[in-house]
Structures are given as C-alpha cells and as structure tokens.
Amino acid sequence: MAPAVTEESTPPQLEEHRFPTLDDAIEHYIGEVTWSQILQITILSLAWFFDAQQTFIGIFTDAQPKWICKNSTDQNPCNSSAAATCTLPPDHSSTISTWSLQCSDPIITSLPSTAFFAGAMAGGLLLSPVSDSLLGRKQMLLLCCLLMSVAGAVSAASINIWMYSCLRFISGVGRSMNGGSVLVHSAELVGKKWRPKVGVFGFVLFALGFLSLPLIAFLLRRNSWRFIYLSTCVPCILYCLILQLFVEESPRWLFIKNRKKEFAETLLRISSPERRRRTSATDLSDTINWELVDQQSQETMNFYSSIKILLQEKFVRRRLLLISAACFNIGLAYYGLPFSLGRLSLNLYLGVVINALMEFPGSLFTFLAVGKLDRRISIFGFSAVSGAFGIATAVVRNKWLQIGFEIAAFTTAVAVWDLILIYCLELFPTCVRNTAMTAARLTVNLGGAIFQVVAAVGGRNKFASFGAAGAAIFSCGVLVYWLPETRGRRWNDLIQEEHLRYQSR
C-alpha cells in the first residue's frame, strides 16, 4: 500500500514549468499583497511627501515681505516719496528681505523658483534614461532624494541670491526623478490588481507634503526662513537611509538587465513566507523564460538605450508624442487654475492650505475611477468636466461663484493628471517606462511655465487665463482617444513583446 501523500511532501507543481511571460511569474509569486510589499510601498511613497515640500517651499521662503506704510498716499515702498514712511518686518522673514531685494527687478526675485524648475527639467532629460539603462529604480530614487535634500539643507547657508539660486537648481535636478521613480517602482513591486491603486497612495502623500508646509512655516514664522529648509531637508536625508535599508530593487528591472540571481532572490524576498519556504532562488530562476532577455541583454546595457528605443520604434514614438502633448495641456490647467486664489485677500497660510486640500478629492476621484472605468473614458470624462468649469470661471461675474468653479476645475484637473500618470505606466514596457514617465512630467512643468507667459500677455483678461486653461484640459481628453486602451492588460517588459502586441492588434 502506497504511503499517504501529505501536503508538505507534495512538490509544488506550478514551479516545475516555465511561465510564458514575466507577468505570469509576477502574479504567481507576488500577485497577492504581503506585509513586506505594503511596507516597501509605504516607504517609497514617502518620497512624494518630501517632493511636494521642496516643490512648494519657495511660497514661504521667497515670499514678498509685507510693507507697513504710514502717513502716505503712495503705498509703493520703492517710490522715493513713500520710502521714508514705510518699514519692513525683520530681515529673517524671507530671502527677499534678507538680501534687500524688495525693489529689485522681478526677474531677480523670481530667479530661485525659475532655477528650481529649470533644474527639474534638466535633471529629467539627463537622468531618466540612466534609471532605465544603468542605475535602476531604487538607486536612482536614492541618488535624487539625497541630491535634493542635501542641496536644500545647504541652501540654508546661502550668503546671496546667486548662491541660493544655484543650490535651488541643484535641488531641482534631484527632484526631477522622484515622483516618476516612485510611481514606476511601486507598480513594479505588486501584481496586476494593485498596480493602479498603489499610485493613488503616492498622490495622497504628495498632498500631505504640500499641506505640511503652511504648518511648518506658521510654527517657524518668528524664525529665519533658513529653519524651514532645515526642518524639511534633514528628515529627507534620514529617509534616504531607511530607503536603502528596507526597499528592494524592482524585480522587473533586474529581469530586463538579465541579472538572474538577483532577480530570483529579490522576487523571493518580496513574496510570502510560504513561497520562500517552498521555492529556492535557483528553482525560481528556472521557471522564467529568459530567451528574449538573453537576445536583448547586450543592447539594454547601453547607457542611453531607452532613448534609442523611444526614438527608433515608430509606434512607441507616436505614443510618447501624444501622451506628452496631453501632459503639456494638463500643465496649463494644473499650474494655471489655482493662481487666481492669490488675487484674493487671503492669508498666505490659508491660501496654500486651500490649494493643498483640493488635491485630496482629485485623488479620491482617481481611486474610484481607476478600477472601474477604462483609462481613455475616465480621462476624457474628467477632462471635459474640468474644461467646462474652467471656461465657466472665465464667463461668470460673481466672485464667489468664480472661485467655486475654479476649485471644481482644479480638483478634476488633479484627477486627470493622476490618471494620466497611471495610464503612462501601462502604455510603455519596463525597458523605457521610467524615461517615458519622466518625459510626461517634464511636459507638465513646461505647460505650467508657458501658462505664465499666456497669463502675463493676457493681463486681466479672464479668457487668457481660465479660458485657455479650460480649453487646454479639454483637449487632453481628445488626444488620448488616439492611444490604445490599457486597463487590465498584461504588462510587457521588453520592446519585442510590445512590438508583437502592436502588430497583432
């Protein structure tokens, strides 16, 4: 009589054959979320928190000081007739008063913020292909967070506007890759069911980071602006240590780099304890189909191979151009719509809180739509609503109704931006995903910069600001019509796999 076969003595059948694709292996080993994955995604997403702080910190550190003028009908303190009757708050209130720039040319006073966003664009162009081709997701995020936070901390020791602007540029270079790297890395650590949802967690932390700034600035309002930098940058430096110790590299990136042993060991460490007990790294590696990777490994080791793929493959290039055009239009609305709050007689801290709070309902809309609606339908729907409210803001005359329409337009624009980022993740294979994601974020920043020119040329004309933003966000929904639907489909890792899918349509 044959001995009874217990569950423990039965060899796992699924691990004995090769998985057709990496996506099948990912679903098998880490498709069900474990506490290890939750911890790592939480740590990764915290980078969004610090990213928001460094992006918007200039609202407080570079604020124009409020002059106190008495016995003068001329309230322009830079006018010689009013200068004798006007006084300033203590010189530690902002960089403007510290270096006596109150009456300087606006180009000089806006130089630090301009340098920061210029650094973000330069860093994106230089570093995004390095993440896909050489450093990987984890090391790129670690490098950029360190660069951003160290440059920010050193900014507190700046002795003039020129040194300060140079450090803001360096900080911008570091900030350029944070959001995209976090979104890509988090999605590559989980299975298909959770990929869109982990991104929403990062969006919420971005809003919390934005919301933390007015609290920090208010608590430090009687201290130098330099303490605001130290209080936001020192925790980020400590965060980098936690990131290095507790977060694994993306198994998908290790796969396309043909690093078989590291891939298998990483995938096992992320998987459940039961999987680790039943499977060795060698056995796991044997279940993976490495043929396409072996053929492509030499090419993908090139420094700028991801740029080469994006430019050479016609269908990939077309997707990148369309998604970049859509993101440019989002930038016009995302950075343009909130600026009218600055025209109201609102306290600076309250104005920033209102802007930050508007991010939360947008992220909630994204969370509700991402699992139930197709990407193109949801993006078009929110774009249409945002565009309608934006144009309505330019038409109505009632002040409070205008503010309400603007808030509604911005909230839905946040949802469009979040959905576009998730859509971009799904459009491109692993070998170029981070590069494409960074290109999308760069064009959003470019759209925001262009909007300032449009608004300046239009002056007080509402149609030049709200109308332009509304029309731009509406056109975003039209542009995605020409892109393929991606909801629920398998992720590809190599360009050959994506090419085969494109040809089989």
Plain-language structure description:
- The structure is a single chain.
- The protein is mainly α.
- Helices cover about 70% and strands about 0% of the residues.
- The chain contains 26 helices and two strands.
- It has helices at about 20-30, 35-55, 60, 80-85, 95-100, 105-110, 110-135, 135-155, 160-175, 180-185, 195-220, 225-245, 250-255, 260-270, 275-280, 280-285, 290-300, 305-310, 315-335, 350-355, 360-370, 375-395, 400-425, 435-460, 460-480, 495-505; strands at about 70, 85.
- Strands 1-2 form a two-stranded antiparallel ribbon.
- The longest helix is centred in the last third of the chain and has 29 residues, at about 400-425.
- About 45% of the residues are buried.
- The model is unreliable at about 1-15 (pLDDT under 50).
